[in-house]
Amino acid sequence: MKTKKFNTSQLTILGLMSGILFLMAYTPLGYLNVGPLAVTFNVIPVAICAIVLGSTGGAVAGAVFGLTSYMQAMGIGGVSALGSALFQISPVLTAIQCFVPRILDGICLGLIYRVVHKKANTYVSCAVTGFFSAFLNTLFFMSALVMMFGNTELIQNLMGGRNIIVGCCVMVGFNAISEMISSTIITAAVGTALSKAHLIPAAQIAKPDTAA
Predict the structure, then answer these.
(1) What separation in angstroms does the CA of 14 have from each of 61, 84, 130, 138, 170?
(2) What pLDDT digit, counting tens, does each position of 117-164 carry?
(3) Tens digit of each residue's pLDDT (9 = 90 or more) over 89-105
């Protein structure tokens, strides 16, 4: 099996996005706390890495995102109300909750961008990838939350006696919509700029770009 190798520019992008993830995680830039969950903009650097570096880069950025979430669950550099509560229930399951959905998100985003870009220009491809970065992050995160913590008193109280589907929609409704809109717009703009700067590998560009 061949190992994905990054050139200097790509490694620079990965390092920059990782730094931005930490910056966003520990400043108001990354989270907008609304109710028990937070609107997070940290899915955007993950999407950018997936666009520029493929699924491997997306997975690495997703792991960095997961690390910042787990650190906040432990109270390092900041506190996540939900993460802290889950950590008290099970540190191991909380680690899975923080890392696995974000890594899967990054992997899927690399595949989504590659498939969409065979049919559409860079702007549209980046916009679609940005949308799914928020959508899949929410889907994977909530699925993991229900599977691992769904029977706990904490989650049952948050569900408010509703069934799982309705309860999840109520919990993440405003947050998810805000994340999808912001991620779609910003990822499209940043991805297009990176394409014009020739930082997206030529192998990922399957047809002449009509957005440039």
Answers:
(1) 7, 28, 17, 23, 35
(2) 999 999 999 999 999 999 999 899 989 988 998 888 887 777 766 666
(3) 999 999 999 999 999 99
CA 94 and chain centroid, separation: 17
Residue 35: how many CB atoms within 10 A of its CB?
A: 15
Closest CA to 85 of 22, 36, 144: 36
The CATH class of 8-202 is mainly alpha
Burial call 107-133: b when 16+ CB within 10 Å, e when fewer: bbbbebbbebbeebbbbbbbbbbbbbb
**AA identity, residue 55:** S
Which are the contacts of 3, defined by CB distance < 8 A and separation ≥ 6? none
Q: Which residue has 């903009």 as its token pair?
A: 41
| Residue that wins the pLDDT comparison between 175 and 87 | 87
For CA atoms 67, 73, 76, 79, give the dihedral sign: positive
pLDDT of residue 95: 97
In the chain, where the domains are located: 8-202
